[in-house]
Design a protein that fits this description.
The protein is built from 8 helices and no strands. The protein is mainly alpha-helical.
Length: 187
């Protein structure tokens, strides 16, 4: 006779079980949530700040805040903690006074044939970074979520607690603003 296999836990149920453990005194269980959500939250923070170090700081502060307010979670933990990180990024953007955004270069070999092509690529990336940095936080956030993180509009709407239509408009406005900024910088 084969034992019945328990139904697979949904991520929300698993998150709630972990939250219940933490609230019952098992503070180490919170590390399970950190492991589960660090990567996508970190990628979002890097996309918003352009700085791996600042993104790591925002993520750490966000998890500390989430831990201290864990009893206030209503609904999905992932959406709740995403809003904490997104708000941390927006606060960082309000307070930072930088003229451009810089991403860490990857360690992959260049696919370009000549140093001139590599230089052109770097120059284009610099233009893109500066243009993205000049967007308002709400447009940058929508653009990063859609085109850098590859999220669907439905997922974005759930995470940002807004409508799909509003997000489509933000992404559209971000594209238009980026195009205009890049055309102004074109020789």
């Amino acid at each position: 006779m084969t034992a019945a296999v328990p139904p697979t836990e949904l991520p929300e149920d698993a998150d709630q079980a972990i939250i219940d453990r933490v609230l019952a005194g098992d503070q180490q269980a919170f590390s399970l949530l950190i492991v589960r959500y660090s990567d996508p939250l970190y990628r979002h923070a890097v996309g918003m700040t352009g700085s791996p170090d600042d993104a790591a700081d925002i993520l750490q502060n966000s998890f500390i805040k989430a831990f201290h307010h864990l009893g206030e979670v209503r609904g999905r933990f992932d959406a709740w903690v995403f809003r904490i990180v997104a708000n941390g990024c927006k606060d960082w953007l309000k307070n930072i006074r930088r003229t451009h955004l810089s991403y860490e270069e990857d360690d992959q070999p260049s696919g370009y044939e000549t140093p001139e092509e590599e230089l052109d690529r770097g120059e284009l990336r610099g233009h893109l970074d500066r243009a993205l940095a000049s967007l308002p936080a709400s447009l940058r956030e929508a653009f990063v979520m859609k085109h850098v993180e590859g999220r669907s509009y439905e997922e974005m709407a759930e995470l940002l607690n807004t409508s799909v239509g509003a997000l489509k408009m933000r992404v559209h406005r971000a594209r238009e603003a980026l195009q205009k900024l890049l055309e102004e910088r074109a020789p």
